[in-house]
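The records we work with from here on pair a chain with its fold. These numbers are not coordinates but entries in a learned vocabulary of local backbone shapes. To see the layout at work, look at the sequence and tokens printed below.
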Amino acid sequence: MYFTVKEVADYLSMSEPIILHLVHEGKIRAVHDGEQFVINIEQFNDHFDQLEKVKQIIDEWKQEPIPEDPDVKDED
């Protein structure tokens, strides 16, 4: 499914000039249809999937208890 730059900007919560800049840098793949750039929205699905995996890994890491330091000596 192809979206316009404005629709992609709304979808990603970014401004249109930033989206156009990323298109011109080649960081977002787009097709120029003669009048405007259109962007296949499916290219962002992998990105969002990876973000979710990273968030899950970070949450799991935060839940792990801190191991006791074996170098800590008793003050007795």
